[in-house]
Amino acid sequence: MNAKADSNNRVRDFGFEEVKLDEHAARVRGVFDSVAGRYDLMNDLMSGGLHRVWKKLLIDRLDPRPAMRLADIAAGTGDIAFRMRARLEQAGKSGPQHPITLCDPNSAMLEQAESRAIDRGYLSGFDFVTAPAESLPFADRSFDGATISFGLRNVTDRAAAMADFHRVMDFGGHFLCLEFSPAVLPVLKPVYDAYSLNVLPWLGQRVADDAESYRYLAESIRTFPEPETLAGEFRAAGFGNVTWQPLSGGIVAIHSAWRV
Question: Which domain holds residue 178?
Fold first, then answer.
């Protein structure tokens, strides 16, 4: 069977549905086309601002330095890339010596990122690239540090994406993934489930006029691998020294993986 035919027959979870790979990619694209304009506001409302704490911890783990070639995959509206640059511009450090790469499959999200960069006075220092995580248009060993934040569970072919993450990291490069996790502490789970499966779609309808996209985003957490399973996928892709750190009672986790 050729690769195209195989792709047409394989299925992937889209929330609690099972769809073919091509349909999954198209439906995820539709979700982010719909929510791009209110994405940042919804992040604050959904998490009560906690996403800012989680992202700070991600940048702490990355520990960006001026000479590092940095990328954020599934970069969305640019929040992580801007945090990378801000960390490099803190007192006692110079700015990045290389443009920070923002890569996302959704052009509507990257348009928001470019607009936000201009609003911050960043007229240069970033490369905006439209491409899926499974087919990154970068040479082998292009980056010393890279992240993906709340994007991996939306990737259509996770194994292919992880292989490409490994390919574009240089030897000694550090890859970090911040993502929601289904491994929530039992004491929190009833309240968390009620909130994410009921309140989030309600918020999505009232703020972004789109309940279904936020219902999908809540459901996609439940079909995402547990941290130990995800760590095994990073190892299978060739990464070494793979660890994870649960945050906020297991609601999210930071996975750390190295190109060795």
Answer: 3-258
